[in-house]
């Protein structure tokens, strides 16, 4: 039997093919990305540098001697590689299981291409079974939660988590996300919301899926 970690590794190793040499790239956060950083370090690919989205990814990049630089110092990122908590056939995603979706959305939006890497359990017909992470300003947590409740979701504070930017995460269960772009905008318009984990505007361009039959490369709208 192939474990979930093995499937993540299959996707991560295949994604090396999408990394151009002599360019700057962006890198996300999570266990699939950890496999990707390892594969990148071992690949011998010559890249100019990486913009990272979390301390964990930065530490791993340093271990492999891969140069890192801040987003403000880079004009162009050729590609952004990151995992997802859920991804649909249009390659829209829910992210933020690791509470890093704000940094991830910033770096994704600065990149020319988004390559999502995931094991096959993440590929879903409908977004929303995974609770939607919403980063909130701490003092607005109750206000935002009431608005999310009015939208039909069940908000729950993620206990013990403070984001990179000093905010809190409210995870929203049972929310209808059948129109991801509309929902992403609606939630971000609530005063006190910093960013939510729907990647509708920043959907991936390519999905590299780790399956028991090997890596599958999927484009938006493909079955
Ligand atoms: C972090 C994320 C991750 O991409 C997502 O949680 C997937 O993680 P993993 O690769 O460990 O399954 O959005 O904020």
Task: Provide an overview of this structure.
One of its GO terms (biological process) is D-ribose metabolic process. Belongs to the ribose 5-phosphate isomerase family. Its EC number is 5.3.1.6. This protein is of the alpha/beta class and 223 residues long. The protein has two domains: 140 residues, Rossmann fold, CATH 3.40.50.1360; 66 residues, Alpha-Beta Plaits (2-Layer Sandwich), CATH 3.30.70.260. The chain is built from six helices and 13 strands. A six-stranded mixed beta sheet has the order 2-1-3-6-12-13, sandwiched between helices. A four-stranded antiparallel beta sheet has the order 8-9-7-10, with helices on one face. Helix 1 crosses helix 2. The two termini are 25 Å apart. The model has no long low-confidence stretch (mean pLDDT 97). The structure holds ribulose-5-phosphate.
Uncertain runs: none
Number of helices: 6
Q: In CATH's first tier, which class of the largest domain applies?
A: Alpha Beta
Sheet with most strands: strand arrangement? 2-1-3-6-12-13
Share of β-strand residues = 15-25%
Number of separate structural domains: 2
Keywords: Isomerase
Pfam families: Rib_5-P_isom_A
Protein name: Ribose-5-phosphate isomerase A
Binding site for substrate: 29-32, 82-85, 95-98, 122
């Amino acid at each position: 039997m192939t474990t979930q970690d093995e499937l993540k590794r299959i996707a991560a190793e295949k994604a090396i093919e999408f990394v151009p040499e002599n360019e700057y790239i962006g890198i996300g956060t999570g266990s699939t990305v950890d496999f990707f950083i390892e594969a990148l370090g071992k690949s011998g690919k010559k890249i100019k540098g990486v913009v990272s989205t979390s301390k964990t990814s930065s530490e791993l990049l340093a271990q492999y001697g891969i140069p890192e630089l801040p987003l403000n110092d880079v004009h162009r990122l050729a590609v952004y590689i990151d995992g997802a908590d859920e991804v649909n056939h249009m390659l829209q995603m829910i992210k933020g299981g690791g509470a890093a979706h704000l940094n991830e959305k910033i770096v994704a939006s600065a990149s020319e291409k988004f390559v999502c890497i995931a094991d096959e359990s993440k590929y879903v017909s409908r977004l929303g079974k995974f609770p939607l992470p919403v980063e909130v300003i701490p003092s607005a947590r109750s206000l935002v939660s009431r608005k999310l409740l009015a939208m039909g979701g069940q908000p729950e504070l993620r206990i013990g988590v403070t984001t990179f930017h000093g905010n809190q995460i409210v995870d929203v269960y049972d929310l209808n996300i059948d129109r991801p772009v509309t929902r992403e905008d609606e939630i971000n318009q609530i005063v006190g919301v910093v960013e939510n984990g729907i990647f509708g505007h920043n959907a991936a361009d390519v999905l590299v899926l780790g399956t028991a039959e090997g890596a599958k490369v999927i484009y938006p709208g493909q079955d």
